[in-house]
Design goal:
The complex is a heterodimer of chains A (about 270) and B (about 325). Chain A has about 270 residues and is of the alpha/beta class. Helix content of chain A is about 25%, strand content about 30%. Chain A contains 7 helices and 15 strands. A 9-stranded mixed beta sheet of chain A has the order 11-10-9-12-8-1-6-7-13, with helices on both faces. A two-stranded antiparallel ribbon of chain A has the order 2-5. Chain A has a two-stranded antiparallel ribbon with strand order 3-4. Chain B has 2 domains: about 180 residues, 3-Layer(aba) Sandwich (Rossmann fold), CATH 3.40.50.620; about 120 residues, Rossmann fold (3-Layer(aba) Sandwich), CATH 3.40.50. Chain B contains 8 helices and 18 strands. The chains are: A alpha/beta (about 270), B alpha/beta (about 325). Bound molecules: flavin-adenine dinucleotide and adenosine monophosphate (AMP).
Chain lengths: ~270, ~325
């Protein structure tokens, strides 16, 4: 089993909402100085799915990440979790990418890697929340695409994939190679082991520039976008919460029920 | 240069009718079409779906493209992408709307790549830019911490729209429209994937998406037994039970109860948020609720910023007393 996993570096999505700031003049997010970026959580679920497959069927896991100025302590986490190789598409030309200028270079890198049975992505990245890059890669490579997987089994030259649906899941059989996006139902990503951390320290990622994957800088980053960001705003929520008190929690509860009755909500 | 013109909606069906999302999209599409003074068309794909055309016309469509084909009975990524590619290339719409549903969220991105254009998923607002005529597509990003508005110079502009954002129009059965049968050909039947089985995990009762009352528990509930107590309250109020992600990940409740950006998006009248902090990813799925009632022991919890009423306290003490009093009041 040769598995390629796409891993993104993102601003920490679980940082307190109050720490999130936008620069309205540039329509961009002000990176918080005191909260380091992390691996996109769904990329991490995708890596966990790959590690589970490797546990059962053996093989090699190659992680690839596209970005600019990727932070080594952050982006090397896949290696410490058990990935065999890490490839970075890292260059100024890759900055400010949209879905297209992310999926296209990633696909060109996958073509260069050449040997793969599965390509795994997260169901959506925690900053863009798009859920598109995986399907885009599958489309360019003309591979079968399955989104929102919660379990993958291999049988012979096929994979059996449980795909999350509205009310449960469906089991889908696909030929290989295939692209699959992974949902959190796959199970919590494992922690890096001490051995993994030591191994990751010694291992340097391979860095590829646009020329290394045979693409023109005009197809990467801001230049290669097919969508345009017009505006970025913080949503405003009305915050007029009326706190219902009482001598005891039980009394507050009774007061709340009565209040809701008065308001005809109960 | 070829001209892209008109608005097209992919109208999903459910149980032999147009799905709610299809009617919502037709309502939204009608408005956009009127703003541009162009046509609204609907695409209906499936097996034995010809009868749905009239309903789509009543909801605002001028033209219906129907591909009635046994091979399109169930959604499959490849056959639907092939069929949609063919229809879009024939009709050349300026804008294509899909629902942010199990189907739309899977189909829109690949279709956009196939057509060389871009798509925006999970849109919560669509407007036409008066100067350029382009579609402005607003969606939550950064887990709901921000709203981004995108547009594109590539056509068709594709948007997957979140359910429940637009209301379905009152059907007008006197409306007239044209129905065009499309033969998507054998090409659209090719699938390298096959559905082996479908497993439903939802209990009988009110669907979470449709419930007027939702009682939701967070990580602070702590156990499956805790959720049993919330279920009792939900039953009493005639509502459904929901959860944040941690209780689902921990198996205290089925995954299909998850509410939020990556779970169900709901807009009930009455939303009881118990022992959950109110992360942006969670709020993103319930901010459409009209009355949020928060129970949390931490006065600083973000959920109080969106709630209408709240109690600062331990749910284990609050909920039994609340349930008892509510039972008493409801019996009156
Ligand atoms: C890309 C992405 C997508 C995500 N999608 C979703 C999603 O769709 N839905 C979702 O819910 N999450 C989602 N998450 C996770 C989300 O970021 C939060 O981690 C999650 O919502 C937190 O759940 P919680 O509020 O239940 O837990 P916590 O944040 O841990 O809050 C628990 C709360 O319970 C309170 N509490 C504890 N004990 C008691 C008690 N006895 N009585 C009263 N109060 C008590 C605490 O004060 C605290 O406020 C997503 C995350 C990412 C990165
Ligand atoms: N810059 C990137 N580098 C590597 N993988 C990415 C990148 N952007 C997106 N992905 C992958 O695509 C998934 C979905 O991202 P998106 O379509 O942006 O929501 C992520 O979870 C990653 O697996």
């Amino acid at each position: 089993m040769n598995i390629i996993v796409c891993i993104k570096q993102v601003i920490d999505p679980e940082a307190p909402p109050a720490s999130f700031k936008i620069d309205a003049t540039t329509n961009s997010v002000v990176l918080p100085a005191d909260i380091p970026p992390v691996i996109d959580p769904y990329s991490e679920y995708a890596l966990e799915a790959a590690l589970k497959l490797k546990d059962t069927y053996g093989g090699k896991i190659t992680a690839i990440s596209l970005g600019n100025k990727l932070i080594r302590e952050v982006i090397k986490k896949p290696l410490s979790m058990g990935a065999d190789e890490l490839i970075l598409l890292e260059d100024e030309a890759f900055a400010d990418a949209d879905i297209w200028s992310t999926a296209y270079p990633l696909t060109m890198a996958i073509i260069k890697i050449d040997e793969y049975d599965l390509i795994l992505c997260g169901r959506q990245s925690a900053d863009r929340d798009a859920g598109q890059v995986g399907s885009g890669i599958a489309e360019i490579l003309d591979l079968p695409s399955i989104t929102l997987a919660r379990k993958i089994d291999i049988s012979g030259d096929k994979a059996l994939v449980e795909r999350v649906t509205n009310d449960g899941y469906e089991i889908i059989e696909t030929t290989l190679p295939a692209m699959i996006t992974i949902s959190n139902e796959i199970g919590e990503p494992r922690y890096p082991t001490i051995r993994g951390i030591m191994a990751a320290k010694k291992k340097e990622p391979t860095v590829w520039k646009p020329a290394d994957i045979d693409i023109d800088p005009s197809q990467a980053g801001a230049a290669g976008r097919r969508s345009r960001l017009v505006k970025l705003l913080k949503p405003v929520y009305e915050s007029k919460c009326e706190i219902i008190d009482g001598e005891t929690p039980e009394e507050a509860a009774v007061n709340l029920a009565e209040k809701l009755r008065q308001e005809k909500l109960l | 240069m070829v001209e892209y013109k008109g608005i097209m909606v992919l109208a999903e069906s459910a149980d032999g009718r147009l799905a709610n999302i299809a009617r919502e999209l037709l309502g939204c599409g009608r408005k956009l079409a009127d703003d541009l003074d162009e046509e609204l068309s609907a695409v209906i794909l499936g097996d034995g779906v010809a009868g749905l055309a009239q309903e789509a016309i009543a909801c605002g469509a001028d033209k219906i493209y129907i591909a009635d084909n046994p091979f399109l009975k169930d959604y499959r990524t490849e056959s639907y992408t092939n069929a949609m590619e063919e229809i879009v290339k024939q009709v050349m719409p300026r804008i294509l709307l899909l629902g942010q549903t199990s189907i739309g969220r899977d189909l829109a991105p690949g279709l956009a790549f196939r057509l060389g254009t871009s798509a925006t998923t999970d849109c919560i607002e669509l407007t036409i830019d008066a100067d350029s005529g382009q579609l402005l597509q607003t969606k939550p990003v950064y887990g709901g911490n921000a709203m981004a508005t995108f547009t594109s110079d590539c056509y068709p502009q594709i948007a997957a729209v979140r359910p429940k954002v637009y209301s379905a129009p009152e059907p007008d059965n006197s409306r007239q429209g044209e129905v065009i049968a499309i033969d998507t050909g054998p090409e659209s039947t090719a699938n390298r994937t096959r559905v082996v089985d479908k497993v439903s995990r939802v209990k009988e009762g009110i669907r979470l998406e449709d419930a007027a009352v939702v009682v939701t528990g967070g990580r602070g509930i702590g156990s499956a037994e805790g959720f049993k107590q919330l279920e009792e309250l939900a039953d009493l109020l005639g509502g459904a039970i929901g959860a944040t992600r941690p209780p689902c990940d921990n198996g205290w409740i089925q995954n299909s109860a998850q509410i939020g950006l990556t779970g169900k998006i709901i807009a009930p009248d009455f939303y009881m948020a118990i022992a959950l902090s109110g992360s942006s990813q969670h709020i993103s799925g319930c901010s459409g609720a009209r009355n949020i009632i928060a129970i949390n022991k931490d006065v600083e919890a973000n959920i109080f910023n969106v709630a209408r009423f709240g109690i600062v306290g331990d749910w284990k003490k609050v909920i039994p007393a609340f349930t008892e009093k509510a039972r008493e009041l409801l019996a009156e």
